[in-house]
Every structure is written in structure tokens, then in C-alpha cells.
Automatic annotation (TrEMBL):
Protein name: FMN dependent NADH:quinone oxidoreductase
Domain Flavodoxin-like fold: 3-199
Cofactors demanded by this protein: FMN
The family this protein is said to belong to: Belongs to the azoreductase type 1 family.
Keywords attached to this entry: Flavoprotein, FMN, NAD, Oxidoreductase
Swiss-Prot/TrEMBL catalytic activity: 2 a quinone + NADH + H(+) = 2 a 1,4-benzosemiquinone + NAD(+); N,N-dimethyl-1,4-phenylenediamine + anthranilate + 2 NAD(+) = 2-(4-dimethylaminophenyl)diazenylbenzoate + 2 NADH + 2 H(+)
Amino acid sequence: MTTLLHVAVSPREGRSHSRRAAQLVLDQLAEASADLRIIERDLAATPLPHPDAAFVEASLMPDADRTHAHRAELALSETLIGELEAADSVLISTPVHNYTVPSTLKAWIDLVVRPERTFRRTPTGKVGVLADRSVLVVSASGGNFDGAHAQTDFLMPYLRYVFATVGIQQVEGIRLQNTARGAESAVQALDGFSQELAARMLLMPLVA
Ligand SMILES: Cc1cc2nc3c(=O)[nH]c(=O)nc-3n(C[C@H](O)[C@H](O)[C@H](O)COP(=O)(O)O)c2cc1C
């Protein structure tokens, strides 16, 4: 059995391009693998809190000093880390918001990337603790990141860096661009997405 964690980010539910593309990925994966288990983490349906003082205190203190109350502060973080640990592969479907990840996805990252839990602090820098696994990032943007007048991409480089921090190196990205440039452009974006998905054989690592 393969377990895949899908982190769905777009707040637009039914009208979201990134969610539509993710569904395409999930349908193709279900065809390719009969015993695929999906853990669905929907950040729009169930928004996550931003780190507050109590969480930060509990997160940074040595485990041996933690009280019951400190552990309760970390319970949601433990649930999210548990979902990631249980997953053989990960699909993240997300909009681009102001050149990078939406704040809802940043909240997930802040709960998952935790010192002495998913990475260790060493004199030579941070060392990831999690086993490597495949991550596919499906991102939708109103404008373009390739070609003429391209925007600077702070989303994929950032996500690669974040996942590497916790030990996950196999991160691939695929974009739906120009979603905000009319209905025809949006259809082209989904077509282009499907073709690139097949050409780069991005599904195989998710069920390998
Ligand atoms: C707050 C906000 C910020 C955005 N920032 C960008 C941006 O920096 N670059 C871009 O190309 N599109 C940007 N967009 C457009 C979205 O990326 C685009 O509508 C995309 O299709 C949203 O994903 P979804 O269809 O899955 O919801 C932004 C949209 C919102 C609401």
C-alpha cells in the first residue's frame, strides 16, 4: 500500500485551478495504484493557527522539561508531523500568493518544521530528521514565471529549502500559469499541465 499526503491550500475550493490539477493527479494515481491511501489535509477547510507565545515556548524547550500543558500546545504540530511521517509521498496543491506560498501553507510549515523534532540543530547547521520521500508541488499563478516579463519565483526555491531542512530532498514542481488571463488561457494552463505531468513522468515517484 502507498500512502500519499495531499496538502490542499487554495481557499477557492470548487473554482481553484490548483485543486483541479491536483484532482487530475489523484485520479491518475488511483488508476496506477490500486491500493493508494490518501491523507487529505485541507488548509482552507481547517485553517491552522499561526505560532503564538505558548507554542513557541513549548517548541523551543528541551523535551525533558515539558509539562502536560506544553505537550498539549504541540499536539496539533504532532498530528501534522505524524501525517507527513506516515506518507510515502506528498502532493501539495497551492496558489502562488505574492510570489510565494500562501500564509496558510506557511502556517503548516511553521508547525511541521520543528527543532529537535523534524530537524536537529548542530554546530554545522540544521540536519533533517525525516526519511526522504517524493514531494510534488502543483502551483497555480495568475501570471507567468517563464518567458517574457516573468515574475521571480520565491515559491519553489523556498519549498525545496524547507523540505531539505527536514530531510526531504526529492521535491519536484509543476506550474499552471496565466490562470488570471481569461478562460481560454486557464484551459491552456490545465492542458499544458497535463502534458508536462506526462512528459516529465512526475506521477511515478509518488507511487514508487
Ligand atoms: C492574495 C493573492 C496574491 C496573489 N499573488 C500572485 C502573484 O504573486 N503572482 C501571480 O502570478 N498570481 C498571483 N495571484 C493569483 C493567483 O495565484 C491565481 O488566481 C491562482 O490561480 C490561484 O490559485 P487557485 O486557482 O488554485 O485558487 C494572487 C492571488 C491572490 C488572491
